[in-house]
Amino acid sequence: MLNKFSVLMSVYIKENPNCLRQSLESVCTQTLKPNEIILVKDGHLNNELDDVINEYVIRFPLLFIVVELPKNKGLANALNEGMKYAKHEIIARMDSDDICMPERFKIQVNYLIDNNLDIVGGQIIEFSKNIEDVVSIRMVPVYHDEIVQFMKFRSPFSHPTIVFRKKSFQLLKGYDNTIFPEDYDFFVRAYLAGFKFGNVKENVLYFRLGENLSEAIKRRWGRKYAVNEMKLYKKFLKLGFFNYFDFFKVLVFKIPLRIMPFSLYSYIYFKFSR
Asked: How far is the C-alpha of 137 from the C-alpha of 273, rounded, in Å?
């Protein structure tokens, strides 16, 4: 069948076992069920996380491929390793603390096939403690040309929502684990390689920010993030995705955000960036 697909996930020791259980349950009970779930243990886990994983492996014995990595080396490395085990030509990403809408895979896999696309994302609802505690809805453009234009300033996909063809991953040799954010870099390289994009208009995922919203967005703030972002933009310039106007535009508008007082950054992030 054309719509056979694999789900690719990674989990590490700091994840919450209850959140992992909610995530796995949402994947395993889809209206269009995956043909395999590749679950990468990114380094040693604790007993609570292992118990949740074992529970689902027992419940769905033919569904899971569990890949154990000896050391935690980050998401990009874990996904690159997990992709080596994928049997199917269509891959769906999932994070270990988010929650899929029940028809997520049916909507996205069919959209990718029907429109002959290579990478398809979707809209997300960001929440804090429970899915009823909605913080914001992240809307991204739907059509290829709009997505490429949007990508000049920020990532055009919500990474945990993407469904993509394995051939795109193989041609690009996976994620560059020397760059951050690795997903933004991956999408730019995919565009330059000629792959076609789309986002479905539907909300497909509840994206967990966590109870402490300030801690959730601090990962995208600070001098270290600014340095990594500068490195990414220099790569885009070198690849030819950015011209010098694009390069200086993002430097002027985005780098100051990362180093301004956190209270001001937090206000701008939730008021204008979603």
From this structure: 10
Q: In whole angstroms, what is the distance from residue 89 CA to residue 97 CA? A: 25
pLDDT digits (tens, 9 = 90+) for 95-120: 999 999 999 999 999 999 999 999 99
Alpha-carbon gap, residue 9 to 15, rounded angstroms: 13
Model pTM score: 0.94
Q: Summarize the chain as % helix, strand, coil (round to 5).
A: 45, 20, 35
Inter-residue contact 155 to 61 (CB < 8 Å): no
Q: What is the DSSP string of 178-203?
A: TSSSHHHHHHHHHHHTT--EEEEEEE
* Paired tokens of 43: 């380094």
Distance CA 265, CA 116 (A): 39
**Domains of the chain, CATH where assigned:** 5-211 (3.90.550.10), 216-272 (no CATH)
DSSP annotation of 160: G
For 218: left if phi > 0, alpha if psi spans -120 to 50, otherwise beta; the answer is: alpha
